[in-house]
Amino acid sequence: MMEAVEIKLPAGKVEGFVAPKFRGVADAFVENFIAREEVGASVCLTKDGETVVDLWGGFARLKEQSPWTRDTVSVVYSCTKGATAICAHMLKSRGLLDLDAPVAELWPAFAAQGKAGVSTRMMLDHSAAVPVFRQPVKKGGLYDWDYITALLAAEEPAWVPGTRNGYHGLTFAWTVGQMVRLAAKKPLGQFFRDEVAGPLGLDFWIGLPEEIEPRVAPMIPYIPPADAPMTRFMRTVMEEPQSLSSLFLTNSGGFGQGGANTREGHAAEIGSANGITNARGLAGMYAPLSLDGGSLVDRRTRDAMGEVSMATHDDATLLIPTRFAQGFMVSMDNRRRTGEQNASVILGRRAFGHVGAGGSLGFADPEAGLSFGYSMNRMGAGLLLNPRGQALVDATYRALGYGDDVAGFWAK
């Protein structure tokens, strides 16, 4: 039985519902507003298919002091990759997409420049070797599907495909997204709406309808202070403009320079970066995967989805150790690395999901029977999860009786 929550903050309030066992998650959520500069946010958990936390609070629009309400949504950036990956696995589960077949069987143009052996599995685990666009993307180019897929098909691989990984931060939208489009014979956003968000009753879009615009909380960019630590990634971005790291951040046809707060940016289908939802949508999407796959995939497919497929001590794009399952992030512990800032995400041993730029997060943990969602409008520092999201994850696992995370993942 969940209990109603209404807690006044120094500015605004937190509302929603929480099961008594998970009161610590509510406490951490409130603490984010008081001590960690949260502006507006939502958090939602399901346990064994039942919602046990559903909270929201703060301001959707800080200047106007407009409250973040139950139905407020926001851009969740790379959490969208989890949605796109789920679509691919659904098609695999239905026998419509072979993850290990050459991509060129469905997308012949992609075989150019030595990419004939690339598989959808390589696209899912960021080893397909096309992590960025080397040719300058025209202004608004990310909103033109045919233009971008042609650009991507013509890319020369940055390494021998399948031999290492580098985060395909933007290009994942069209590597995996194009495979979904071709196998499903419909656009990615439509497939996601028809087969995932619609049946599960989720406020979650890849390509936002105009009538939902009033509910969208604008994103507040992170502006690093003058004394912020200079990580290897940021130094490379600043000093090596043709590096994979720099092109990832800068060559987006303007989307990365405020496009996520525009109607055009919301309406496009960018299956790596512009999904719009809230914590309830993220947790709801992962809820079937925390059980046996439910209406999304069969049990065997679900079991394979979270298995580590590619890992490295030096991601070619992010320049940190990373671990990827088939389209998903798994627990990554870089807390002991010097010179890094918020370069970790500590989950359960069997958990899989995805972090979004600025700190949003969605994941499933089948071992715990858990699904989790967190969304916010004020972006935080770092490549992965910042202290606001990690505090909520930590409180969740403690509520479930997990003892510590010293092994690099939460364990009992």
Give a brief rundown of this model.
By secondary structure, the chain is an alpha+beta fold. It has helices spanning 23-35, 79-93, 120-124, 145-153, 172-184, 188-200, 232-239, 244-250, 263-267, 279-286, 299-305, 387-399; strands spanning 3-8, 13-18, 40-47, 50-61, 66-67, 74-75, 276-277, 310-312, 322-324, 352-355, 361-365, 370-376. Strands 1, 2, 3, 4, 5, 10, 11 and 12 form an eight-stranded antiparallel beta sheet that branches. Strands 6-7 form a two-stranded antiparallel sheet.
The CATH topology of the largest domain: Beta-lactamase
Q: Tell me about the largest β-sheet.
A: 8 strands, antiparallel
Low-confidence stretches: none
List the helices and strands in order: EEHEEEEHHHHHHHHEHHEEEEEH
The structure class reads alpha+beta
Architecture (CATH level 2) name of the largest domain? 3-Layer(aba) Sandwich
What is the number of independent domains?
2
Q: Specify the overall morphology.
A: globular
Please bin the fraction of helical residues.
25-40%
Query: How big a fraction of the residues is strand?
Result: 5-15%
- Text of the CATH class of the largest domain: Alpha Beta
The oligomeric status of these chains comes to: single chain
- Counted by DSSP, the helix tally is 12
Walk me through the topology.
Blueprint: E1 3-8, E2 13-18, H1 23-35, E3 40-47, E4 50-61, E5 66-67, E6 74-75, H2 79-93, H3 120-124, H4 145-153, H5 172-184, H6 188-200, H7 232-239, H8 244-250, H9 263-267, E7 276-277, H10 279-286, H11 299-305, E8 310-312, E9 322-324, E10 352-355, E11 361-365, E12 370-376, H12 387-399
Antiparallel strand pairs: 1-2, 2-4, 3-4, 3-12, 4-5, 6-7, 8-9, 10-11, 11-12
Helix pairs in contact: 1-12, 2-5, 7-8
